[in-house]
Each structure stands twice: as C-alpha cells, then as structure tokens.
Design a protein that fits this description.
By secondary structure, this protein is of the alpha/beta class. It has three domains: 6-152, no CATH class; 159-246, no CATH class; 254-299. Helix content is 56%, strand content 14%.
Length: 300
C-alpha cells in the first residue's frame, strides 16, 4: 500500500487546486471567478473540533472560492482524503464524520454553500460511503456527498487527459501496483510519469507538485536506487533540454552526497591523527572495512 497520508494529499491539492476543481467539479470550475484569490481555511476549520479527536477526523482541505455571480457569492469547498475503511460500520462512521464537517462549517460560515468531496485511496471496491442518513420517529435526515474512488478511474483516460490532477490520480492508482514491485519497477514507473509530464507540457510548478506527491507514495528500498534514478533523470533532462531541479529526489541525493563527502573528510582527518579505526567508525558510522581501505589510500 502506498504511503498515502493527509499531509501529502493536502500539499498536492493546494498546489494543484485549480486543476483539481476542474477535474472533479467541471461545472463549478466554470462558475468560479479565478481572478479572485482562493483562501484556504484549514486553521479555522481545525478550531471547530476538539484537539482530543484522532487524526482521521481532520479535514484535509477547506477552501473559500469566489463565484462569478453578481452577488459575489462564496462557496466553501471541502475535500477529504481517506485511505482506509471497510464494512458497514466503517461506512456509517465515515458518513457521519463527513456530515459533522458539513454542519460545523455551515454553522461557522452561515449561508455558505459547500461542495463536499471524499477521495478514497483504498483498494476495497465495496467501500463507497457517500451519505449520512438518520431517522427518528418521523424526523429524517439525508446528507449526500461526492466521492472519488481512485481504483474506479480508467488509466487510459487519465493518461490522455491534459489536466495535471488527472496525472496525479494516475500516479496514485499506478502507485498501488508499483509499490508491490522491486526498485527496478518503481524506477520505470517514476521515469515514465516524468516523461508523461514533459510530453504534456506541464509547468515546473505543476511537475514539482506531482513529484513531491510521487516521491512520498513510491519510495525506493535501497539508497543506491535513488541515486540511479537521479542519474537517469539528469540524462533525461539533457536529452529533453529540460530543467529538472523541481524533481525533489535530486535535491535529496545532493544533500546526501554532501553529507557523505563531509563525513569522509572528517574520517580522513581522524585517520591522519592516528585515531583508532573502531572509534572513528563509532563516530562517523562508516564501516570499519571502508575506513581501512581509506587508510591504505592515504598511506599510498
């Protein structure tokens, strides 16, 4: 299972908010005045809930957007990302939680319409909570919200779409398979997505958002695999004449290489001062065998 979590999705949705709305709510997208700044309200929303609540109760993104109508009407867009759950009880709890978000937001920001969406990242085809219903002696309530099940989306349709959020959905769906494979499979997947982004002509900011997401949900098992991936990215950058600084793995590998270089410099100084190899290994965390080879090189 990919390392999906709320923060990763939240950052990706913030960065790709416009294409996200266009992907999930095309009619709403055309009715929004995008010249007005979108305001994210997660901090205000968090204050509506008790701090003792567990992390699953936190709404990922709440955004206020301005419509095109003459009344300057505001719509609060509530997006919740979940990657867990199965069974009737989980569905009921999920629906009740979504309704709680709804009525608390309505109470906080009176007379504001809310478009609610739950993005479900699990692989259970039967887990599809899309409503909350309650009835008691003639008093009945039904609250229905939008859901997006990642496994439902057709990969070919996502691949041909020019919407960056469609590419993120494609990455999320394929990540479910890629994470079951070895580092070679993961590398082919990540390089393939990068080529797709370049072919679609996405902006550096859009590709940066996509790769921030991808580097978290599909991670290599071995450090040398990440370095090999960076080498392949640099080759692709040279071939495509593209700026790849937005690929976060490059920055990570650069930092790791800088740390390793500094550690080796420290080890060399210690060896030159005739310090015990075991002591140097304990301090630098370098293997004793590597330190012996380094000592032999210095003698030569």
């Amino acid at each position: 299972m990919p390392a999906f979590n709320d923060e990763i999705w939240k950052n990706s949705i913030h960065a790709l908010f416009h294409p996200m709305v266009k992907f999930h709510f095309p009619e709403l997208y055309s009715a929004v005045d995008w010249s007005k700044e979108c305001v994210f309200l997660e901090e205000e929303l968090a204050n509506l809930f008790s701090p003792e609540r567990d992390g699953k109760r936190f709404v990922d993104v709440l955004a206020q957007i301005t419509m095109k109508d003459g009344d300057d009407k505001y719509v609060l867009l509530h997006v919740e990302v979940q990657g867990y759950g199965s069974g009737e009880k989980a569905s009921l709890e999920f629906g009740e939680r979504m309704f709680e978000y709804y009525y608390r937001v309505r109470d906080k920001w009176r007379n504001k319409d809310i478009a609610a969406l739950a993005i479900l990242t699990d692989e259970n085809p039967n887990f599809r909570p899309d409503r909350y219903e309650a009835s008691f002696f003639g008093t009945t309530l039904t609250y229905v919200f939008n859901i997006c099940k990642i496994i439902d989306h057709d990969e070919e349709e996502l691949e041909v779409s020019g919407n960056p959020f469609a590419t993120l959905m494609l990455a999320a769906k394929r990540a479910l398979k890629a994470n079951r494979g070895d580092d070679g499979t993961k590398m082919l997947f990540k390089l393939g997505l990068l080529r797709l982004c370049l072919r679609k002509g996405y902006s550096p900011d859009e590709i940066k958002a996509l790769f921030f997401f991808l580097d978290w949900v599909v991670s290599f098992d071995r450090p040398d695999s990440k370095r090999e991936f960076v080498r392949e990215v640099k080759k692709l950058a040279e071939k495509e004449d593209a700026d790849m600084r937005y690929v976060s793995s490059i920055e990570e590998v650069a930092r790791e290489e800088a740390r390793e270089k500094r550690t080796l410099e420290i080890a060399r100084k210690m060896l030159s001062q005739k310090m015990d190899i075991t002591t140097i290994s304990n301090i630098t965390e370098l293997p004793e065998e590597e330190l012996r080879k380094l000592a032999e090189k210095q003698l030569n």
